[in-house]
Amino acid sequence: LLELGANADAQPGTFGTALCTACDGPQDVEMVKLILASGPKDTLNKACGTIGTPLHIAASSGHYDTVAVLLGAGADPNAPGGSFGDALQAASVFGHEEIVELLLEHGAKVDQ
């Protein structure tokens, strides 16, 4: 679909953007990389559902490798949105300690 011009940043339905959907469910880092490489990243730091941004979704799901890829692509670890507040809170609430450490290494603020 991307090769045929599908807009990866479109947010047509319940699951938000293709990137948000790829960050949820089973971890698929290659899919996340493919979507990120497909074009504009207007929605990288925008909430696209009740959980929040793609980073919030990956952090709450415990997807370490996906979190690392998103941070490398410019995802803001302090972007607000969603039911957890920020990515650090999303990872913390589910006990994903390695992701908490990774977010802190990338500038996540504890006192936000």
Automatic annotation (TrEMBL):
Keywords: ANK repeat, Repeat. ANK repeats lie at residues 53-82, 87-112. Gene3D superfamilies: Ankyrin repeat-containing domain (1.25.40.20). The keyword Hydrolase does not apply. It comes from the Eukaryota. This is Ankyrin.
